[in-house]
Amino acid sequence: MGHALKDRPYILLERCWLVCLVLALSCAAMLTVARGADPNGDAVYVTDIKGAIGVAAARQVAGALAEAGRDQRSLLVIRLDTPGGLITAMRDTIQLILASPIPVIVYVAPSGARAASAGTFIVYAAHVAAMSPGTNLGAATPVEIGGLPGLPRPREPKPDSKETPDISSEAAARRKAINDTVALLRSLAQMRGRNVEWAEKAVREAATLTAEEALREGVIDIVARDLNDLLARVDGRTVMIGGVDHKIETAGLPIIVVETDWRTRLLGIISDPNVAFILLLIGIYGIIFELWSPGTLVPGVIGVICLILALMALATLPIQYGALALVLLGIALMVAEAFTPSFGILGVGGLIAFIAGSIFLFDPAGADIDIAVSLPLIIAAAATSAALVFFVIGAALKARSRPAMTGTEELIGSTGRVIDWRGLTGRIRVHGEIWAARADCTLNPDEAVRVVLRDGLMLVVKPLSKGDSNAV
Predict the structure, then answer these.
(1) Same-domain status, 388 and 334
(2) Which of 158, 176, 247, 398 does the annotation list as catalytic?
(3) What does the pLDDT look like over 149-172, one tens digit per residue?
(4) Do 234 and 85 belong together in one domain?
(5) Residue 176 catalytic?
(6) Listed residues 401, 416, 444: the one ending a domain
(7) How far is CA 309 from CA 131, 215, 263, 271, 470, in A?
């Protein structure tokens, strides 16, 4: 029995090593299965991009290319469903595809998906462009620049029109943006041998095509029902990579789905304009509450984390710093209203600055879709901020200005009566309690006194004059 107990730690240690060895072998086997049985490690890598094209999407493509690019015979299939996105992220994604050492197939799928705006550029950049039946692409016109929401914009004359073009700075900036966008899409069309005329039409006239129309117009290469049909159709096709012909071979290659890592998923979540806006507000108010009540820690910790996440998100979005300054100024003015008796002037001004800054927080010229904070969210945030400032903080300040009702501060200034007194010390009754007391003079029993100081468990008092209205 004693030997068994003595050897028990060694038995447990041996079992732990055995479990670790089994787990390691299992992980290695799983990786081997995931990589496929091909001796060269070649495979078809598939990654899905859904939603707006942003920094997270570009990071996802870069990660998938890095994983697939290790194998010479591999290829990457990007299943795409997007309404558009940030221009910078779109250009980064295009550069990744153009510099890829392996073929990249952009497949607009599943049925019902679309490749609008930035998605059209990515389709044109692919070595092989494919669509699923029931999908569409196009509408690649840039978002209008400048102006106020809802106001009429200067109309662009048609290329064959004799109208006098608008020479205003806004119209010039818009023409410049459109011409730059047209040049990019035309260059991609010329590089991949696709329809150049329709590329310009997609930008200038926001033209769209269904999958069958796109195939007929020479915009895409393949219409495929599903992934297996796509791989069967591209097998044996030759594409140009780095100035050299490359033959695509898909027969017998395993399919590996490249999952998005947690950092990319987190970046995709917080880079949403509405989420970034909420994180910014939580961060600012969390820090304000921590400074208001030092030592609470919870608001400060949450505020700092949310503020850092918000700054990370704002760094990936086309932000207008003047509008951000308006948001911060609005919050500062609303907080100042709680400390300054301005009869609501600071609060109303802060509310106006906050709403105006929130509306213009993101620059529409940095994306080809309408990127902005949701108006209902702005109204809700403004109402919540006003309520916090005018009611919560205001009530806290009023509570601070009220006289103390308990504790040492409440005793100072209170009145009582002498119970007994000898020399300069004695006992008094204050608020129904008996306290030891001292004074600079001799007092008489039942004489009214006022507390002027507390020294530990001893109260310092002085006699009240007979004309004092507070005498008890």
Answers:
(1) yes
(2) 176
(3) 444 444 455 555 555 555 556 677
(4) yes
(5) yes
(6) 401
(7) 36, 43, 12, 9, 58
